Amino acid sequence: MSVFDQRESNIRAYCRVYPVVFDKANNARQTDEDGKEYIDFFAGAGVLNFGHNNERMTNAVIEYLQSGGVIHALDMKTTAKRKFMERFEKIVLKPRNMSHKMQFVGPTGTNAVEAAMKLARRVTARQDIVAFTRGFHGMTLGSLAATANRYFRGAAGVPLNHVSHQPFGCEKPCLGCEAGCGVESLERLRGLYRDTSSGVTPPAAFLLETVQAEGGVNVASKEWLQAVATLAKEVGALLIVDDIQVGMGRTGSFFSFDDMDIDPDIICLAKGLGGLGTPMAMNLIKPEVDEYWSPGEHTGTFRGQSISFVAGNEALSYFEDDDLMDEVKSKAAIMNQALQPLDEQFTMIQVRGKGMIIGLDVSTGERAKAIVEECFKAGLLIASCGTGGRVVKLIPPLTIPDEDLEKGLKILVDTTLKVMEETA
Amino acid sequence: MSVFDQRESNIRAYCRVYPVVFDKANNARQTDEDGKEYIDFFAGAGVLNFGHNNERMTNAVIEYLQSGGVIHALDMKTTAKRKFMERFEKIVLKPRNMSHKMQFVGPTGTNAVEAAMKLARRVTARQDIVAFTRGFHGMTLGSLAATANRYFRGAAGVPLNHVSHQPFGCEKPCLGCEAGCGVESLERLRGLYRDTSSGVTPPAAFLLETVQAEGGVNVASKEWLQAVATLAKEVGALLIVDDIQVGMGRTGSFFSFDDMDIDPDIICLAKGLGGLGTPMAMNLIKPEVDEYWSPGEHTGTFRGQSISFVAGNEALSYFEDDDLMDEVKSKAAIMNQALQPLDEQFTMIQVRGKGMIIGLDVSTGERAKAIVEECFKAGLLIASCGTGGRVVKLIPPLTIPDEDLEKGLKILVDTTLKVMEETA
Amino acid sequence: MSVFDQRESNIRAYCRVYPVVFDKANNARQTDEDGKEYIDFFAGAGVLNFGHNNERMTNAVIEYLQSGGVIHALDMKTTAKRKFMERFEKIVLKPRNMSHKMQFVGPTGTNAVEAAMKLARRVTARQDIVAFTRGFHGMTLGSLAATANRYFRGAAGVPLNHVSHQPFGCEKPCLGCEAGCGVESLERLRGLYRDTSSGVTPPAAFLLETVQAEGGVNVASKEWLQAVATLAKEVGALLIVDDIQVGMGRTGSFFSFDDMDIDPDIICLAKGLGGLGTPMAMNLIKPEVDEYWSPGEHTGTFRGQSISFVAGNEALSYFEDDDLMDEVKSKAAIMNQALQPLDEQFTMIQVRGKGMIIGLDVSTGERAKAIVEECFKAGLLIASCGTGGRVVKLIPPLTIPDEDLEKGLKILVDTTLKVMEETA
Amino acid sequence: MSVFDQRESNIRAYCRVYPVVFDKANNARQTDEDGKEYIDFFAGAGVLNFGHNNERMTNAVIEYLQSGGVIHALDMKTTAKRKFMERFEKIVLKPRNMSHKMQFVGPTGTNAVEAAMKLARRVTARQDIVAFTRGFHGMTLGSLAATANRYFRGAAGVPLNHVSHQPFGCEKPCLGCEAGCGVESLERLRGLYRDTSSGVTPPAAFLLETVQAEGGVNVASKEWLQAVATLAKEVGALLIVDDIQVGMGRTGSFFSFDDMDIDPDIICLAKGLGGLGTPMAMNLIKPEVDEYWSPGEHTGTFRGQSISFVAGNEALSYFEDDDLMDEVKSKAAIMNQALQPLDEQFTMIQVRGKGMIIGLDVSTGERAKAIVEECFKAGLLIASCGTGGRVVKLIPPLTIPDEDLEKGLKILVDTTLKVMEETA
Predict the structure, then answer these.
(1) Is residue A396 within 8 Å of residue A144, measured between CB atoms?
(2) Contact C366, C331 (CB under 8 A)
(3) How far is the CA of B294 from the CAs of A143, A155, A196, A388, B128, in angstroms?
(4) Contact A162 C164 (CB under 8 A)
(5) Bridge partners of B350?
(6) Can you name the residues that pair with B353 across neighbouring β-strands?
(7) Exposed, middle or buried: residue A181 (CB in 10 Å: 0-12, 13-18, 19+)?
(8) C-alpha C173: how far from chain center
(9) Is there a contact between B362 and B368 (Cβ–Cβ < 8 Å)?
(10) Which of residues 179-218 of C touch A (CB under 8 A)?
(11) What 3 state SS string does D120-178 have?
C-alpha cells in the first residue's frame, strides 16, 4: 500500500478519478511516473490558464529566488508586489477606467468571497445576500452558504443562513431545467422587495458568476446580467462578480464580463491570478465601498506571496496585446466545431460555453462519469461538474497547442459517441 | 503617490506599521529598497520558522522548477506530494505512534480550522463548538466564530453562532485577568453539561491553541490541557488542537503539545508547514474520525502545491535530529534572560512564552505600539498582539543567528525601558 | 390625563384608532361610555364570529361558574373539556372523516403556529419552513419568522431564520402585484427542490392561510392550494393550514378549506374557537404526525380554560345544522352587492373576499386610513390591513342582523366615495 | 375508550399524572367526577393564588357578564380595563414609586417574555440575552431559547441562538450542584465583558426569576440579585425579572423581589394576574425603555380580556391591606415546620423556598415521581419540577385553609417517609 492509501484522508477525490502518480507537466500535458503522457483539459480546475510550468514564469520565479527577494511578506510593501500592482493597474484597470482598489486576501478563492460578503454586509448594514442556483463560491462557512450544491452544503453541520438562492439567468435554457430562470425571475424578485408585506427584503449584495463553472458551465445572458445590475443599484445592494474560475482570460477577455456592460462593485479573482498555479487571491473594490474597511479587519497569513506576484506579473503580460485573447477565440471555435455535432445528434446532449470553457451536458452523471473514465484511459484528463455531475467540462490551458487541443477533442468526441451508444 | 497609496485597499495594516518597501530577505533579516536592514522578530507572523529564503529550500525549489515537476495538482497524487507525505509519516507520525491521516485542505490556516469544525460536527451530530477566550483561529465565517477578538468579529456582519467561548487555562495568570480561568472553570463546565436543566449541552469539539499566539502569547498549563482532553473524552467531544502558529518546532518540539500528554483527534497545521513561506495547510485526523468524510466534501483549488511540498520536505529534515530543537531551547534561554529583568523591574510588565514564542505584556496597547514603532526605527521588526494590542510578541525565525537575536533583544529592551520611562 | 395616557405602553394601537372608552357590547354593536353606539365590522379582529356577549354563551358560562365547575385545569381532564372534545369530534371531525387528534396549546394563535412548526420540524428532521408573502402567523419568534410584514419582523431584534417566503397564490391578481404568484411559482419551486445544485431544499412544511386576513384579504385559488398540497406530499413536507382567523365558519363553512379538496396534516385554530372571545387555541394533527410528540414537550399554563370550553361548546352548536352557514352566504351576498359597484367604478379599488371576510383594497394606506377614521366618526368600527394598510377589512360577526349590516355598509360605501373624491 | 384517549394529542401530560376527570373545584380542593376530593398543592402550576372559583371573583365576573360589558376588546380602551389599570397603579405601582408603564401582551407568560426580549434587543441594539441555568421562560421560540431544560429545548427543531446561560445564584447550594454559581460567577462574566478578546460581549439583557419555580424552586440570594443588577447597569444591559410564577403574592409580597433592593427595567407578569385562572399577561416597563416601542409592533388577539380584568381587579384587592400577605407568612411557616425535619433527617433531601413556594428536593426524579403518585392516591395533587424532575413542588393557593394545608402536608410527609424507606 502506498502512503496515499495508508495515510491520506478519506476525503481525497481527484486522485480516485485519475489513479496514477503525476511527476512532470508542461503546458497542456501531464506525465505520470511511468512516463505516460496525458493531455490536460482540466488545467487544475481552471488555474493553469497559461499552462503547466509556463517557462516565462518559472524563469522569472527562479531568477527571483536566486536574487534573494522577499518571498513571504504578509501585507507589507515589497518591490515584487509593487511591480504586480503597477502592472495590474496599467494593463487591467486603467484601460477600463476602473477606479477599483486591490485587496489581497488570503490566497484562496473562498477567502476572496468571504471578504466580499463581509464588506457588502458592512456597507449596507444588511445581512442577506442573494446568490444563484448552481453557483459555486467556496467551502468555508460564509462562502459555503452561497454555494448551491447540496453535497457540499451537507458537510457544514450547521445551518447556512443569510444567503438565499435565486434562479440563475442562463443564456440558453439548460436541458430539462424547471427553475424558471431569466429576467422574469428578477422582475418577481423586484416585486417582492417593493412589497413591505412580502417577507423578503433587499439584500446586501447579489453574488454571481457570469459563467458558472462548477455549476455546469451555465452562461448568463447579457440581458439577465444587466437586469441583476440594475436591480442591485435600485435596491441599494452591491453587485459582486466572482470571476475566480472564468476571469483571467478564460472567456476571451481579461474579465469574463468585459462585454456585458456591467460595473461590479466587487470582483473576486484567484485561480489563474498567480500565473503558475501558486496561490493568490484578490478583490477589486470600488473606492466608495472599500472605505468601509478598517485596517486589518480581514487578515490572513499568506496575503503577500512574492512567487505568485512574480509569476502573476508574467501572466499579466499576456494581456498587453491581443495575441492570447485572439488565440482563445480561435481555439474556442475549434472546440465548438468539434462538439457541436454531438449537440445536434443527441437530444440528451447540450453544448454550452463561452471562450475556452465549454460544457458538454450529457444529461446524467453516470454517463459523464463513464466519459471521464474512458478519456483518462485514452490519455485525456477531463472532469465533470454540474448537477449530479452531468456535465463534462473542457477548460484546457489557454496556451494549449492546437495539435494537443485537437487530439484531446478527438478522444473526447470518440469516447462520447461510444458511451452514448452504450447507454442508449 | 505610490501605487500602494493609490490602489491598495484601506484594509492594509502591517504596511502602515512598517512604512517602507521591502526588497530582499535572508534568514532573520529583511532589507528595504533603500538598503536598510532590519532584524526580523516577526517572521511573517510565525510562518518563517526556518528563516527567509532558506537556502536548502530555495535550492530544492529551483531544482524542482527546472526539472519540470508538476507545480499545481489539486488533490491528485504527485511524486512531490508522496515524498512529503512519506517523510512526514517517518519523521513526525511514526515516532509518536500517531495513526492520524493527512488531509490537505485549502492552503490557509482558516481552511484547516473550517474543515476540522465541519468534521467534528459531522462525527458528533452536534453543532456547538467550545473555543477559548483570546483564541485566534481565522477570519472566514466558521473559524471567525471561534476567534475571540471583538474587532475581527465585528467585521462579520452576521451573528457568529454555534461557538461559545470559555476561559483559557493560562499557565500563569495574565496581568489583571478577571476571567477566572484554570481547571476550576472546566469543572464548572462539566457540571453544566451534566445538568440537563443547565441550558448548556456538550459540544462537538473543544478547539484550542496550546499557546495562544495572536491572543497575547498565553501559554496553557499542562494540567488544564489534560483536563480539557479528559472532559472532551467524557462528553463525547473531539479535541482539536490548532497548532498553526506554534507547531513546526516553534516551542522546542515539532508539535507544541509534545510534552503535554494529550492526544488530539484533529491537529491543524499551516504557516511553517510549507517551509519557505509559501501556502500550505494540513489537518492530521485520527482514522476513526476521518472515516466520516466522504470524498470531496471539503475541497479547494490550491491543495496540491508542489513548491510547498518540496520546501516543506526540507523543513521536515530539520526534525530528523535534535540540532534545531536544541538551538531553540538555547535561544529561548537567551530571550528569557534578556527580558526577565523587565518583568522583575516593572509590575506592569509580564514576560510569558514557551520556546521561541515570547510575549512581553506591557499592560497597554499604547505602550506596545510605541515600542513597536521605536524598534522599527531602530531596525527591528516586531509586532504586538493580545487584548488591545498590549503584548509585544517575539517570534523570530528558529534559525536566527545568536548575534542577530542578541542585537534584536538589545534594541527591544532599550526601547522598552525608554518607553516605560516616558509613560510612567 | 387618563390612566391610559399615563400608564399604558407606547405600543398600544387600536385605542389610537378608536379614541373612546368602550363599555357595553351586544352582537354587532359596541357602546362607549358616553352611550354612543358603534356597528362593529371588526369583531375583535375576527374573534367574535358569534357576536359580542352571545347570550347562549354568557348564559352557559354563568351557569358553569355558578355550579362551581373547574375553571383552570392545565391539561388535566375535566368534564367541560370532555364535552367540548366530544362535540368537536361529532360536529367537525366525524362528518369529514378526519382522524386528526386535538392538541390544546397555549391559548393564542401564535402558540398554535409555534407548536405546529416544532412538530413539522421534528417529523421531517428538516429545519426550513415555507410560508407565503403577506402571510400573518403571529408575533413570537418562531411564528414571527413566518409572518411576512416588515414592520412586525423589524421588531424581532435578531435574524428570523429557517423560514422562507414564496409568492401566495391569489385567486385574482392583486392590484399592482408584481410577485408572480400562482401555480407557476410552485412549478419553479418544484424544479429547485429537484435540482440538487439549486441551493434550495424541500422544507419541513408549507404553512399557509387559505384566505390571508391580516395580509389584505387575499383569497387563495383552489388550484393553487391543491398544487401546494401536492408539492408538499411529493417532497415529504407537511401541509399546515393556519385557519385561525378564517376558520370557525367565517367563509361559509367550518373550515375555510372545506371546499378546496385538500387534506392538511395540521390545522391551527384559535380566535373564534372559544366562542365568546375568551382565549383558546387548538391544533388538529393527523395521528401519524401527532405520534412524534412526547408528553409535555410543548406546554403552557392556560391550556385548560373551562370558560372557553363551555362557550366554545355553544359555538359548535352553530354548526349542527346549516342555518348559520346559510346566513353567512346570504350576508356575504349583501356585502358584495354593496361593494361591487366601488370595484367597478374605481380602477384603484378592488373588492376581494370569501364568505364574510371581505377586503376593500383602495390602493394606498393613506386612503384606507381616512376611510377608517371617517367610518369611526360615523359610527362604524372597521380596520385596515394588507401591505401599507391599504385594504379596509370587513369582518363583522357572522350573527350580525341584516339591518346593522346594511347600515354599516352604507356608512362604508358613502365614506369611501367621499374619500375617493377627496383623494382623486 | 374515552375521547381523551381517542382524540387528545400524545403530548398531553398532567392528565397522565392525575388519571381522573375533574369536575368541580373550590379554593384548595378539586373534585373528580366520581366525587372524590383532592387537596390541591399545585394550584394550576401557580396560577390559582386566590384559590379555585374564588367567590369574590366569580361573583364579579357573573355580574359583569350579566351587565353586558365588553368581553373582548383587543387593545381598545374599556371601562373594565381602566378599573384594572387604575387599581394596579394605586395598589402596586404608586406605593413603590414605580414609574413603569403597563403593556398588555398576548395572554400567556411566554408572550410577555418574548415581548420583553424584543424590547431589550431594540433598546440596546444587541442580540444576545443572558438567562440562567434551570430558568424557565416559556415554549415559543424566543422564550424557549431562554429556557434551560434540555427536554423542552430538544423540541425546537432549530438552533436556539442569541441566548446564553450563566449559573443561577442560589441562596443555598443545591444538592450536588457543580455549576459554580454565586457572585463569583458574575465577577468572571464581568471580566469577560471587559476583555475585548474574550469572544464574549455584553448582552441586551439579563433575564431571571428570583425564585426559579419550574427549575426546581431555586431561590436567588439577595447578594447575587443585586450583583446581577449592578452588572447589568454597568454594561448597559436591561434587567428583566420574569415574575410570572412567583409574583402576585406567592412569596409573601406582591413582587417576589420587593425585599431585594433591585429595580428591574421590565417585569413580566401572568399566571395569577387574571385572578380566576383566566389568561392574562402584562409587562411593566420603565418609561425610558417603553418609548422604544412603536404602536402595534408586538400585537396579539387576546390582549383585552375583560373577564381577566374584572377578576384580576378583585385579586388586586387582596393587596390593599396586609391580611393575605400575613397569612402567606404564617402558612409558609407551617409548611417549613412540617418539611424541615425531612431535610434534617435525610442527606438526600433538601427543603428550599420562599413564602408559599417550597421545593422538596429528593435527589432523584424516580423518587419524586413515586411521591407524586402516592400523594395523588392519598388525595393530594402535587407535582415535581427541577432537573430530572427531582423536586416536589408545593405551591398551594395562598388562600388555602390551614386545615387543608396541614392535611396536605401530612400526606406529603408520610408519603415521603414511605418512599424514602422504600428507595433507601
Answers:
(1) no
(2) no
(3) 20, 9, 43, 15, 22
(4) no
(5) B361
(6) B358
(7) buried
(8) 21
(9) yes
(10) 179-180, 184-185, 187-188, 190-192, 194-201, 215-216
(11) HHHHHCCCCEEEECCCCCCCCHHHHCCCCCHHHHCCCCCCCCCEEEECCCECCCCCCCC
Q: What is the DSSP letter of D220?
A: B
Q: In this predicted model, what pLDDT tens digit does every residue of C402-417 receive, in sequence order?
A: 999 999 999 999 999 9
* C74-132 residue pLDDT tens: 999 999 999 999 999 999 999 999 999 999 999 999 999 999 999 999 999 999 999 99
Going from the C-alpha of A216 to that of each of A190, A336, A395, the distances in angstroms are 27, 16, 12
Domains of chain C, each with CATH number or no CATH? 3-54+322-423 (3.90.1150.10), 59-319 (3.40.640.10)
User: Model's pTM, two decimal places?
Assistant: 0.97
In the A/D pair of chains, how many CB contacts fall below 8 A? 3
What residues contact residue D1 under an 8 Å CB cut-off, 6+ apart?
none
DSSP of C165-186:
EE---BSSPPTT--S--SHHHH
Which position has the grid cell 484533529? B266
b/e string for C314-335 if b means 16 or more Cβ within 10 A?
Answer: bbbbbbeeeebbebbeebbeeb
Residues of C in contact with A167 (CB under 8 A): 188, 192
Let me know the angle formed at the C-alpha of B343 by B340 and B344, rounded to the nearest 5 degrees.
90
Q: How crowded is residue D190: how many other Cβ atoms within 10 Å of its Cβ?
A: 18
Instruction: Please indicate whether, in this complex, the C-beta atoms of D158 and A158 are within 8 angstroms of each other.
Output: no
Determine the distance in angstroms separating the CA of B131 from the nearest CA of chain A, rounded to an integer: 16
Cβ contact, residue pair C158, B159, below 8 Å: yes
Q: Sign of the CA dihedral A279, A284, A289, A292?
A: positive
Q: How is residue D145 written as a grid cell?
A: 431559547
Residue of D nearest to B181 (CA): D188
**In chain D, whose CA is at the least distance from the CA of C287?**
D9
Is residue B74 within 8 Å of A43, Cβ to Cβ?
no
Tabulate helix, strand, coil % of chain C (nearest 5).
Answer: 40, 20, 40
- Distance (Å, rounded) from C-alpha C68 to C-alpha C52? 24
| D252 close to D355: Cβ distance less than 8 angstroms | yes
Distance CA D151, CA D215 (A): 12
Of B159, B162, B165, the CB nearest to D198: B165
Q: What CA–CA distances, in Å, run from B93 to B90, B101, B258, B272, B318?
A: 6, 9, 12, 17, 15
**pLDDT digits over B58-99, tens only?**
999 999 999 999 999 999 999 999 999 999 999 999 999 999
Q: How far, rounded to the nearest angstrom, does the alpha carbon of residue B218 sit from its chain's CA centroid?
A: 12
Q: Is the pLDDT of residue B180 over 70?
A: no
Q: How many CB pairs under 8 A join A and B?
A: 367
Start-to-end C-alpha separation, chain D? 39
- Residue among D118, D45, D62, D123 nearest D307 (CA): D62
- Are D79 and C156 inside 8 Å of each other by CB? no
Nearest chain D residue to A157, by CA: D159
- In C32-91, the residues whose Cβ lies within 8 Å of chain D are 33, 44-48, 52-53, 58, 61-62, 65-79, 82, 85-86, 89
Neighbours of chain C (3+ CB pairs under 8 A): A, B, D
- Using a CB-CB cut-off of 8 Å, the residues of chain C touching B158 are 159
Cβ–Cβ gap D69/C23 under 8 Å: yes
Length of chain B: 424
Selected residues 145-174 of chain C with any CB under 8 Å from a CB in chain B: 158-159
ipTM over 0.90: yes
